[in-house]
Specification:
Oligomer: homodimer
Number of domains of chain A: 2
Domain HTH cro/C1-type (chains A, B): 3-46
Largest interface: A-B, 45 and 46 residues
Mean pLDDT of chain A: 85
Organism (chains A, B): Marinitoga aeolica
Protein name (chains A, B): LacI family DNA-binding transcriptional regulator
CATH superfamily of the largest domain in chain A: Response regulator
Domain HTH lacI-type (chains A, B): 2-56
Shape of chain A: elongated
CATH topology of the largest domain in chain A: Rossmann fold
Distance between the termini of chain A: 67 Å
CATH architecture of the largest domain in chain A: 3-Layer(aba) Sandwich
Keywords (chains A, B): DNA-binding, Transcription, Transcription regulation
Amino acid sequence: MATLREISKKIGISIATISRVINGAENVSEETRKKVLKALQEYHYQPPQVARKKLHYLVGIIVPNLLGNHYNMISESIELELSKHGYDSFVTSTHLLLNKEIEILEQFFSRRVDGIIICTTKNDDKHIEKLIRSAIPVVAVDRNDSDINVDTVGIDNYHSAYIAMKYLYNKGHRDILFVSGEREVYSAKVREKAVIDFSKKYEVNLKILEGDFQFEGGYSSIKKYLEKNGKDFSAIFFINDQSALGGTRAIYEAGYSIPDDISIIGFDNDKYSKYLYPPLTTVHQPRKEMGENAAKLLVERIEGNGSKVKRKIILPTEIIERNSVKEVKK
Amino acid sequence: MATLREISKKIGISIATISRVINGAENVSEETRKKVLKALQEYHYQPPQVARKKLHYLVGIIVPNLLGNHYNMISESIELELSKHGYDSFVTSTHLLLNKEIEILEQFFSRRVDGIIICTTKNDDKHIEKLIRSAIPVVAVDRNDSDINVDTVGIDNYHSAYIAMKYLYNKGHRDILFVSGEREVYSAKVREKAVIDFSKKYEVNLKILEGDFQFEGGYSSIKKYLEKNGKDFSAIFFINDQSALGGTRAIYEAGYSIPDDISIIGFDNDKYSKYLYPPLTTVHQPRKEMGENAAKLLVERIEGNGSKVKRKIILPTEIIERNSVKEVKK
């Protein structure tokens, strides 16, 4: 393990420049940056407070917000796994920071985090690029963009949405509504693409309603649709279980029953989903395992045992069959 | 603003001892501790990184876990309010730390938090006492224990449970089930007391079922009760909305409808509660305002404008009347 001074001497680059690289500053040439990062890795450089005081490693977890289920469960699992390795961790919401990307960087660098796990699917998070440019190890969850040069953990959203459609299709459904999520969210875009592709291939009569991953979007989209068009479909695929819960109320309010009149399938397998009435058939997303794997990848990176190439871990999803989908005549 | 050295000189106590007080160590006499704390306040002592670098203040928020709704919504609101004041914040789950009270202390002190907001209702959190003994400003949410010497924000759990019972009573219900929460949780204990007191006073035929604030406890307690006793009641008061959601499934599975056969009322007003079918009548708990108030109290303490005496802010709750309670013959 070498100090900055020693590394500076060895590679003939000033400490100030090395610091700029560590802190992700932009006024460093790409060539210099690569040289510095290589040297930091080679000489197992560790931030001073770790080397000096043997404090616990500290990991910052970035989530879009704390209000849903998805990122809470993933970050809970990350924290649990990190604590097994003796790491400290904390969670920060990006939505609190809005466009203040400088603040999040400042916070992370000034608090000297040893690693970062990014759990956010929006594609316009520019601060993530800065983080990736820095010397701090980063693992991304739910971001399978091939152009991100970090280890990632996620599910195959395309395949998962495809099997949900296939499940409805195999139960005889040919007129299907899909309640979508915001399209700037990576997973929403990909799931929608799968739904469209499937429908084209199997000649499903598909209608797409705009949703938002929230209870309200599920409720209002179905309510409006039923008011305008009546029940000209036999099944609904909701982008997530929250939308499905909201949609359920709209279905009941319009006087239909589930699954006798309308079959529904969700996505996620939220904690409450098996307590809904009828219990919700859904695609299980392995959030616990996503968190565990992300934590393990990061620990490897921080402790210098990480792979030389970036790794992309895709975890399996599965249909959880309950009682909200009925077989209909084909 | 004075440095430790200056304060040490002025009050004639060594820097080492002052540091021990700041870090909540126990090997300091009560007299010395008080003297030091008074001096720190008087001379507006600030941790070195704040004084030196003008970093943002950092607040640690302690919650039992990230998985429910209650503490997530409160901490989201705390973080939003703190960010308006230019503060940074992070969230830590106590359940990850188990009995490792030393670790949480070490983490907080080593990361140099400027203030702490404790959102946890278990009465056996011994580390909280240590935090309170330290010089770091602390605000507690959901802990109205009169023996805690810090500012607190909460609701009147007794009154809130009492008015829920009164609501059912006024609708004609005289045979009522109460699904409780774990009794080591402060709010559960107090709500249960109110339910018992009300029932005695108004001669309600009360039965108490053991629950756990979770979907499962609501489901299994009602399921078992109905299997054993049948429907010998007309209404259920669930300790929270999650229990009510779980209980709903047990009611439907047994072939009863809500509210025609069984009326139910929850507590919290969770985000999904208005999307349940029927929409759930419940006691609204002002989590957003609880978080905001806690953040404001802490900011005042950190910036030295806090009250000399401890403050206890009790926020109002209210019944949100939806469609899960029916009027019955008295």
